[in-house]
Amino acid sequence: MFNPSEMNRRKFLKLSLFGTAGAIMTFSLDNQLSSEPKSPYIMTVNGPIKPSEAGIFLPHEHVMVDFIGADQVSKDRYNAYDVYQKALPYLKDVYKHGCRTLVECTPDFLGRDPLLLKKLSDKSKLNILTNTGLYGAGDDKYIPSFANDMSADELADKWISEWKNGIENTGIKPGFIKIGVNPVPSNNDMKLLQAAALTHLSTGLPIASHTVTGAGARRQIEKLIDTGVHPSAFIWVHAHAEPDISLHKWAGSIGAWLEYDGLSPQSIDQHLQLVKKMRDFGLLHRVMLSHDAGWYNVGEPDGGVFRSFDTLFTEFIPHLKKEGLSDHHINQMIKINPSKAFAVRVRRINI
After folding, report:
1. N or C: which end of the chain has fewer CB within 10 A?
2. 3 state DSSP class of 226
């Protein structure tokens, strides 16, 4: 509901953040961030851990996906033991490389399976996070029809229930909210964002949004600010896909997290240039690195080609060191930043 104080707050933010004619500025909202609660934690499929216990952290990976669409997706379409057998060696391998926490980003109606993830976590010794939320990218192919008729408040109630009661009667709680938007976010996409904002304000779960364009990221961040959510609650997934580095600078300066996932042997140079530019901007404290790898693909023989999670360790970190990035810079991106980004903590704009 509109009220005068809300109008004044929006005017203040727009003047402070965007300046004349929407110019990109480096003003940060950090001094407006509320500090509740005092002891944040990370929620894994095996329960909460302290951020200091998360260790090296891969913030965007997949064990399994099913692209059949929300109207046909079903656990009957795959054998969970087959997926377990296929994925486990890769998870054990990345553990040997030093990784201790892995975020599994497959959302509901796209192959999310919390019990499978718990079994893999137990056997691999990795902390694994799963999620709540819905994926609107792909022109709503992965949105169940009933959700199209739900309001943002109703969707939020459903996601908050998964946080309070566990997912699908498993008792396993989500560690973050996963949404996806199209390159030009639709009205339905923005409804998902609004639901995510409401869920965040109730639970403290961070929002990871599949967003391939800087314009789409900016629109979402501005909407979150209007809703009273601090940008540090927002993780711009696939930020590396945006060629305009000024939008990376804007998002980082305002306090959002930028996820340069998609790391592979073929992307080393692209990711290296992005990291160096963000270092030059003084914004490595907003950057995270991951592969967007794995992908047991339901419907393909033996799940198709499963990509490993090791390029960061075997190739990219050595390249970073050759380019003069310090151990502190590297630990910032692969350990400190994700432990902060995925901490469960309500992040309001306290104005």
Report:
1. N
2. helix
What whole-number distance in Å separates Cα of residue 205 and Cα of residue 160? 10
Tokens 């042997």, residue?
265
Model confidence pLDDT, tens digit, residues 84-120: 999 999 999 999 999 999 999 999 999 999 999 999 9
pTM above 0.85, yes or no: yes
Bridge pairing between strands 207-210 and 176-180? parallel
As given in the structure block, the two tokens for residue 193 are 């964002």
Confirm if 216 and 181 have CB atoms less than 8 A apart. yes
C-beta of residue 251 within 8 angstroms of C-beta of residue 239: yes
Which strand ranges, in their side-by-side order, compose the sheet holding 56-65? 127-129, 99-104, 56-65, 294-297
- Beta-bridged to residue 102, according to DSSP, are 58, 128
Place of tokens 């600078």: 249
Q: 102 Cβ partners below 8 Å, 6+ apart?
A: 57, 58, 61, 91, 94, 126, 127, 128, 129, 309
Tell me the Cα Rg of the chain. Answer: 19
Strands 42-44 and 176-180: unpaired
**Which token pair is 293?**
């790898």
DSSP state of 59: E
> Taking the CA of residue 21 as centre, how many other CA atoms within 13 Å lie in the half-sphere pointing to its CB?
0
CB atoms within 10 A of CB 144: 15
* CA 79/CA 209 separation, integer angstroms: 29
Q: Residues 183-233: pLDDT tens digits?
A: 999 999 999 999 999 999 999 999 999 999 999 999 999 999 999 999 999
Query: How many Cβ atoms sit within 10 Å of the Cβ of residue 79?
Result: 12
CA–CA gap between residue 130 and residue 108 (Å, rounded): 10
Residues 210 and 181: beta-carbon distance below 8 Å: yes
Bridge partners of 134, per DSSP, are none
